[in-house]
Specification:
mainly alpha
Length: 165
């Protein structure tokens, strides 16, 4: 099933795609990994089904193994967009301009940083920050003032069918 979720803004679509992928990858990883635990109420067959789902090996990325990002993940990304605007009292477009401006100075001092602003990466890392994952846009980008809202996302945010069961 291909989901056609979009707006009239390429930047917004890319931001939302990055955030949605981050939200769903986090939930998918938790869902699959719960199959390893016996400290839950899963039946043996449910545990086995989760363990049979695609998963990364060492050094690989969950996003390369998760199923297609469901519409509910895009809804969370939309919540993040709205919460960022409410918390910062400016549009996400303005926040991105500030991020890009901060990167211009940062990149002049950073040999590993590439050129150009990546809206999907921006959405991904702001979603990771909003979930409290400990990775940040600022790990590889210049600093600027921004309030990151908390967004609750877990495997419970999605129907089991979204994970491939």
């Amino acid at each position: 099933m291909t989901t056609n979720i979009g707006s009239s803004s390429i930047f917004k679509d890319e931001f939302l795609r990055g955030a949605a992928k981050a939200f769903f990858a986090s939930a998918y990883a938790d869902f699959v990994e719960e199959g390893h635990s016996t400290d839950n109420e899963l039946s043996d067959s449910d545990r086995a089904a989760r363990l049979a789902l695609p998963r990364p090996g060492g050094g690989e990325d969950w996003m390369d193994y998760m199923p297609e990002v469901p519409p509910a993940a895009y809804a969370l990304a939309g919540e993040l967009w709205a919460a960022l605007e409410a918390a910062n009292k400016v549009s996400v477009y303005v926040l991105a301009e500030r991020a890009e401006q901060a990167d211009t100075e940062h990149k002049s001092k950073c040999a590993k940083c590439g050129d150009g602003f990546d809206a999907e990466e921006f959405g991904h890392y702001l979603a990771m920050q909003a979930m409290g994952h400990g990775v940040s846009w600022f790990d590889d980008h210049g600093d600027f003032d921004i309030e990151i809202p908390d967004i609750e996302c877990s495997q419970c945010s999605f129907d089991d069918a979204a994970f491939g069961l």
